[in-house]
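quick one before i forget lol
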Amino acid sequence: MIRIDAHDLDVYVKAHRSGPLFAILDEVRDYVFIKDVEGCFLFSNRAHLAHLGRKESEVLGKTDFDLFPARLAEEFYASETHLFETQIPVIRLQESVGASGKKFYSTAIKFLICDKRDNALGLVGSVHRIAAEDSLDVEQSREHILSILRHQPGVTHSQFKAFEASLPALLGKH
């Protein structure tokens, strides 16, 4: 959970958008975004915008349902709803589709952003691209995925074990 001294996440993001933290986030290769409690994008870094094949003005204020196929948007919405309900960070392997329509797999980590009284204001997400469906065997990425999660702040041992146990199903191995 990330705590900020604000009561309105949109106002906070706009006030700090030109600051050094957001400048750094814009340079990160992973997809980084901030959403409000309604699921509307308030920030999307350059890598995320390139992945979406859109300009910032076409993303901010939109939801996943405006930007992704319905099946993916529903999956994203479900995991984020669970985050708001439980306050447990989302850590998952997910399938996604780039602007070109090409499928790929990634790890997604999402944390709540709260005010000082722990009222949820939104979430911050970081998505790390792992493998394109046709360029790398996802099964070979297993250790890479687990290595990423071992080093993520806030990932508990039980979350890590649960994720590790779910990998075969996520990778289509039953």
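fyi The chain has a mean pLDDT of 84.
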